[in-house]
Amino acid sequence: MSRTYLRAVGLTAVGLLNAGLTQASAARTLFDSTAIPQERFAVLAQPIGRVQWKLLVLEQIKTQPRCWRERQDGLVEPSLNRFNFSAICKRYLDSNGYSLRSGGQDLGTRFRFRLKQSGTSLRLEALDPQQRAPLLVGQARIPRRDLNGFVQLQLESGWALERRVYQARQLNHLYFAHQEPVNRLLALANSHGHRSVFSRLGTPMPPIAPPPLPAARTTRRRTTRLASNAPIRLQVIPYRR
Question: Closest by alpha carbon to 126, among 144, 140, 139?
Fold first, then answer.
């Protein structure tokens, strides 16, 4: 009876495991993606307050009027606010509009994007709370901080914008996509992180040689040789009562 029960429990566990794997596989293949013309999009960082940044992606659907323009100071002005941009421009403002995709796998529920500033450099990173090193997706130089001027980010090599596809139908959702599996990207990010830690320590210095030991001094001691045949005089102390 106990063997039959244990066997039934084992079969049930295997069935649940297979069902879980099937659901996970179905979730991975639920959405597909397709390549899109990169020149139609601008990945921008919008300054918020004194130190914060917000990620924004603009799409130019029609050629005119322009949805953004570059300023002489190196910043970008989103000009779509000057006209009715319906059917001309499209905005992707948050995780409802974009997410991460790597190796053909949707990772929107696992990774979140952040903009991290270091001096005049701005990095677009994808962060998994369970991992130490983030994935570097894009970066830019900050010419200056202006609440009316956005910073345009350049995607790193291997990264590109793609559009989400469901049953051959394109959706209003973008991917920051990479062809490599995410585990490989994380391994590379961790290795780069270790190298950067050691680089901050500087070039290792050779060990300092110890100073030479002082040369041993030769000393000569004068010795008095006693004649073997001469008597030795001892001092006698008189005894007193």
Answer: 139
Domain of residue 125 covers 29-200
174 in Cβ contact with 97 (< 8 Å):
yes
Instruction: Give per-residue pLDDT as tens, 62-116.
Output: 999 999 999 999 999 999 989 999 999 999 999 999 999 999 999 999 999 999 9
In a domain, 21, yes or no: no
- Any idea which residue has 């599996």 for tokens? 181
Residue 57 resides in a domain: yes
Query: Phi/psi at 162 (nearest 5 deg)?
Result: -130, 160
Cα–Cα distance measured from residue 201 to residue 204, given in angstroms and rounded to the nearest whole number: 8
At 170, list the tokens.
Answer: 């394109």
Examine residue 118 and state whether it is found in any structural domain, yes or no: yes
Number of domains in the chain: 1
Residue 235 domain flag: no
- How far apart (Å, rounded) are the C-alpha atoms in residues 154 and 70? 14
3-state helix/strand/coil string of the chain: CHHHHHHHHHHHHHHHHHHHHHHHHHHHCCCEEEECCHHHEEEEEEEECCCEEEEEEEEECCCCCCCCEECCCCCEECHHHHCCCCCCEEEECCCCCEEEEECCEECCCCCEEEEEEECCEEEEEEECCCCCCCEEEEEEECCCCCCCCEEECEECCCEEEEEEEECCEEEEEEEEEECCCHHHHHHHHHHHHHHHHHHHCCCCCCCCCCCCCCCCCCCCCCCCCCCCCCCCCCCCCCCCC
Q: Considering the entire predicted model, what is its pTM?
A: 0.70
